[in-house]
What we know:
The complex is a heterodimer.
Chain A: E1 6-15, E2 18-28, E3 33-37, H1 44-52, E4 59-64, E5 67-68, E6 79-82, H2 94-104, H3 109-122, H4 138-150, E7 156-160, H5 168-185, E8 188-193, H6 196-202, E9 205-210, E10 213-218, H7 220-225, H8 230-235, E11 240-245, E12 247-248, E13 254-258, E14 261-264, E15 276-281, E16 287-289, E17 300-309, E18 314-319, E19 325-330, E20 343-347, E21 354-357
Helix pairs in contact in A: 2-3, 2-4, 3-4
Chain B: H1 2-34, E1 37-38, E2 44-45, H2 51-56, H3 59-91, H4 97-105, H5 112-123, H6 128-135, H7 149-174, H8 177-185, H9 190-201, H10 203-219, H11 222-227, H12 235-244, H13 249-277
Antiparallel strand pairs in B: 1-2
Amino acid sequence: MSDNMVYLEEVSKKFGENYAVHKINLDIKEGEFLTLLGPSGCGKTTTLRMIAGFEKPDEGNIWIDGKQVEKIEPYNREVNTVFQSYSLFPHMTVAENVAFGLKMKKIPKSEIDEQVHRALDLVQLRAFSDRKPKKLSGGQQQRVAIARAIVNNPRVLLLDEPLGALDLKLRKQMQLELKQLQQELGMTFIYVTHDQEEALTMSDRIVVMNQGQIEQMGLPDEIYERPKTKFVADFIGETNFFEGTVKGGEGSNLYMSIGEQKVSIHNHSNIESGEDIYLSIRPERIHITQEPGNKSQDYLKVKIQDKIYIGSVTKIVASFSDGQKITAHSPYDKTLHLQEGDNLYIYWNPENAVIFPVHEKEKIEA
Amino acid sequence: MVRNIKAAYLMLSPTIIWLLAFLVVPVAMIAIISFTTNTGFGGILYEFSTEAYTLAFSSLYAQAIWQSLWWAGLATLSCVLIGYPFAYFIAHAGKWKNLLLLLVMIPFWTNLLIRLYSWIILMNNQGAINNLLIKLGIISEPITMLYTPFAVIIGLVYGFLPFMILPIYASIEQLNQSYLEAAEDLGANPVRTFFRVTLPLTFPGVLSGIVMTFVPAVSVFVVTDLLTGGRLLMIGNVIKDAFLVEMNWQLGSAISLLLMALVLISIVILMKFTSKNNETSSFM
């Protein structure tokens, strides 16, 4: 038990022999926008469906608003879902779709009309009340699906990749609208997506899932800046990985080698000399220069292999003497004079690199 | 543009020839014959006459027409009431689905005529059903089933039920499960989900089933021939007798055309009636 809005305790779900979700613990606070993020098949949708009631957990308990719900059917749970495919009833008008949940609750007709109007106003679709869903665009259908769910004033709104079918521009716009709507209503949102950018943009808190388990739970910047596992570092954003053995002496003078060059390691990650590690450094954290400065140890010499203009930044792909590659993002004007084949010196603040042991025996939980 | 249209017609020509040869020409022949003069014993004199229609509208034939529509309608309704739950059950039978579908279709492998004979044995006064009921003490005297409208309805329902089950099954099978989840999510229990979502969304299948059952049922003649020994008449019997017994081709043609018109009108009414309630239903 806990006083959170949604609480999952050691919840597992098996499909056949395989665990889709394995012993996860999750607590979601009232009014929170929580995102379940992960690649397809990571168990995020199964987790959402267990909260909605469409799947029954094989083990563990689920509480919603203080009530234990594993044995409660979906139609008796105080949650509503926005489905990936919208699932608007094709034989009903927009207004009838939105009114469906209220009708099931046997609310008086006049009150239903009023609430339906208010919900459609909220998503700016009042003018489309009498249309059939098929006559609306994808974005409009999406809004109807949202109105149909929130009109019931659920304790928790579950959203299963609701923007997946929309084009990029509309998706970005809807991300902001959804976030705004959530803040206006003060409703608890549980949002499932495989799009890390979407997760970072919208969430109060992100839960990264992989192979049915939680890899990391935290604030968007924590997840991005301080990933706790290699998987998280790899999945969220772009990064460079280098494998090596930690060397060096006592205290803060640890280093590893990339090629034949030494790289300092910040010792925040409780590692010791002799350990095999991965070092992860984000492309935008790498500085480039053609003339090495004074602290020569921190500069790594590389050869430019490719220069790719991608709009906001220019992507530099360079290689070490042993063939390992590294990608750096630099402002366009700093890269104008660079050419393929040029020598380049790169450096980064050791604090910005993240270190993972090569043999991750146990998952770290927040 | 012009060449494209020519090419299109060329590609359509097999269909057009087929329709002309097997639909338009025969119907046109029936229509023409129905307005010719009867010279007796199947003779056709190509002189305009409406005598066949006067005869067709006389009470005997009109009664057979209404009787056919009524019985076929009743049988179709029974097929809907039996067929829908049946189809629903098959669609949700998981791994047994294919086996059950096969069982629905197996009767087609035997001629309807032969299958109807077995109903004679079952519904006889000394037949299996009466014997069973008497043994169980439910009745003391055998109930006469053969030679009654009841037997006709049984025969029609038995004969055409698969035509109702299959299209309904197809529409339930194709129904997107996420609609049902959405209904459940919005607080509808299974019963309300069925009546508010499943039934309306599978109605096109029911309509197809109605047409596929009603149309053959209204004109069939073997059922009445066998199960009532020809004592009760459906329009199919009347047409058959007109051609083969009375040798009155004009009368047979006229009643055939009237039947076609009635069936068409019934379908149009059905379509109009349902398309008002359900915009999404695509007909057949």
